[in-house]
Amino acid sequence: MAKHIMKKIAAYSDKYLQESIKKILSGPEYPQKKFTLPGRTYEEIYAMASDLQEAFSSINLNNKPICLSADDKSIIMAALLAVLASGGPPVIIPYSDSGNVLSEMHGHIGYNMAVCDGKKDFPSGVSTIIPRPGKRKRSIPIRETTIDPNMELLLLFTGGSTGKPQVWSKTVKNLFSEVFYHTEKHAISAEDRFVATVPPYHIYGLLFSVLIPFVSSAGIDSDSGTFPHEIVSAVQKHDATILVSVPMHYKALCGNPIQNHSLRLALSSAGVLDKTDNELFCTQNKTGILEIYGSTETGGIAFRCRADGDITFTPFDHVDVKIADEKIHVRSDYISPKVSRDKDGYFQTGDAGNDLGSNRFELLGRSDGIVKIGGKRVDLQEIREKIIKIQGVKDAVILSHPAPAGRENEIAAIIEGNVTSSKVRSYLAKHLEPYAQPRKYKIVSCIPKNRLGKIDMKQVEKMFHLK
Questions:
Q1: CA-CA distance, 2 to 154, in Å (whole number)?
Q2: I need a labelling partner for 436 at 20 to 30 A (CA). Which of 19, 318, 326, 421 fits?
């Protein structure tokens, strides 16, 4: 049932990456072809990139990153091309374009130039550029010096949900090793047309809705929307061959079959895809979903397609996975240079797994209390720590579970102490992003525990009718 192509591919050498990127910078293979559908051509993107490259060279950036706050995929790609051609500095992409986030990022990292696609509330002193294709039609000049695969190209700002902003660095090698891999692995070409519902500020969205379509000379929808009828309409309108989405959108598509479609590949990431949602989509649309397991810091790790009978995960080619004490460790060219590795080059993820042999493993969930809500990271432990600071609270248990209806998971909290749920809600509204705030509360005199004094999670779940 699945319509994907899988073949063994060797790891990419630095020389291969340098030559391939140099070819990309030399100009578009199909200048008049539309990159965004409808929208700008490849030629227009290169023209914008040339203008950005000139702007970067004319302003003293003091080696500070360039803020890239845009929804327009052509502007995002033009900025990345300009940085590649200029040899830096890196671009930093915020997880939101709100004034609060842009200010938070400015205070955390510092930047004095921003590339955007409209008026944004940047901090005082930040210069902005809104690229426009204009009438000039030219390619980016090829750099005379050799492109360094270890050059820092991208910074992803993923803080905010629980007060601990994080910045994940990605090098040229991190990004383009994964881009070239998936382009070849899935036989993506100029004949493909993408519809993507995941935003480009997410690493999965950046790879599959900007970089991979671009290097393969494919087309990508400019804005498919996220409601079921919008996704269905975009797939049909563009005669899409590849759908890039997330679990909550596949859930929303249940009961909304895509009639007369041309999809050959459907991808899901940024969370665990519900088994029932997967089966309904496959049955309705006769297309299997390829689930990608990975993270911002690790890049892609493994895959499965349950329509092909894959219950467990298989690591991608040239990604090494080992499991020790049920903790998943990863080694690959996709991993951010900022993370800690052991002496053998392995990074310990926050996920738990079970090694099943034959290059397969079972994903058991998070081992560190991190969950995904609407594709965004939420630390359940930090929510608990905030709640127990409230006067009258003795203890709390935080859990994430599928919503009884709707398109995503939700957070619930059971609280021991003398406090009202309205007081807790009011406090958390000031200290958490909306998506990280619990939707359900239970105030109890004593959190249920077993004979060993440990929290009885079965009883906790029963309180929310989860079992």
A1: 33
A2: 326
Strands 127-129, 440-444: pairing kind:
unpaired
Kindly tell me if the per-residue pLDDT of 68 is higher than 50. yes
Would you state the pLDDT for residue 341?
A: 93
Question: pLDDT grade, residue 444 (50/70/90)?
Answer: very high
Count the Cβ atoms, other than its own, within 10 Å of residue 349. Answer: 24
- The pLDDT of 96-123, averaged and rounded, is 89
- Could you tell me the strand order of the sheet in which 113-116 lies? 127-129, 113-116, 66-69, 91-94, 152-157, 167-171
Q: CA-CA distances (angstroms) from residue 308 to 2, 184, 190, 288, 291?
A: 6, 20, 27, 8, 12
In a domain, 3, yes or no: no
The helix (H) or strand (E) run that includes residue 285 is helix 275-285
DSSP 3-state percent helix, strand, coil across the chain (nearest 5)? 30, 25, 45
pLDDT higher for 458 or 266? 266
Q: Where are the beta strands (DSSP E) in 90-182?
A: 91-94, 113-116, 127-129, 152-157, 167-171
Residue-level length of the chain: 467
Task: Considering only residues 61 and 312, tell me which one the structure prediction assigns the higher pLDDT.
Answer: 312
Element (H, E) at 276: helix 275-285
- Say which residue the tokens 């409230």 belong to: 390
In which domain, by residue range, is 181 found?
14-364
pLDDT at site 459 = 81
* Whether residues 171 and 47 fall in one domain: yes
Task: State how many domains the chain has.
Answer: 2
Domain-terminating residue out of 364, 380, 407: 364
Tokens linked to 147: 């492109």
**Domain end position, chosen among 364, 393, 417:** 364
Angle at 369 between CA 365 and CA 371, to 5 degrees: 65
**Which whole-number Å values give the CA distances from 270 to 10, 69, 282, 385, in the listed order?**
26, 21, 19, 25
CATH number at residue 381: 3.30.300.30
Lowest-pLDDT choice from 222-226, 338-342, 453-457: 453-457
In the predicted model, is pLDDT for residue 348 greater than 50? yes
The CATH number assigned to the domain holding 161 equals 3.40.50.12780
Alpha-carbon dihedral sign for residues 261, 257, 3, 21? positive
Three-state SS at 457: helix
Q: How does pLDDT run across 23-64, given as a tens digit for each residue?
A: 999 999 999 999 999 889 999 999 999 999 988 888 877 789
Q: Are residues 264 and 206 in the same domain?
A: yes
Asked if residue 446 and residue 309 are part of one domain, the reply reads no
Find which of 66-75, 349-358, 373-382 is predicted with most confidence, using mean pLDDT. Answer: 66-75
Q: Is residue 436 part of a domain?
A: yes
